[in-house]
Specification:
about 100 residues, alpha+beta, Ribosomal Protein L24e, Chain: T, two-stranded antiparallel sheet, two-stranded antiparallel ribbon, 4 strands
Length: about 100
């Protein structure tokens, strides 16, 4: 899986490391990605997303839906509703089958 923030789209950046003598060698800057579970109140469910720590600060200010909308994404592509409405069966319910 790519090291990319699902909210902002930030990924690994490439550039030059410049020494004191101005010799240039290639280097990379990796994004600080964390996996977070975020609760969506209007849908009453938890969503697991991989986002940068910078985007996490934005989420605290705006909320998940507003942050995704501002960056041109959609919540459906990030967190599909495939498990909404499914209820886990208890061992007692399984035995009744």
């Amino acid at each position: 899986m790519a090291r990319r923030c699902v909210v902002t789209g930030r990924g690994t950046a490439y550039g030059n490391a410049v020494s004191h003598s101005h010799r240039k060698t290639r280097r990379i800057w990796k994004v600080n990605i964390v996996k977070k579970n975020i609760f969506l109140e209007d849908e009453n469910r938890w969503v697991s997303v991989k986002l940068s720590t910078r985007a996490l600060r934005t989420l605290r200010k705006k909320g998940l839906k507003a942050a995704i909308k501002d960056n041109g994404g959609s919540l459906a592509s990030i967190a599909p509703k495939k498990y909404v409405g499914l209820v886990k069966k208890t061992p007692k319910q399984k035995a009744l089958k």
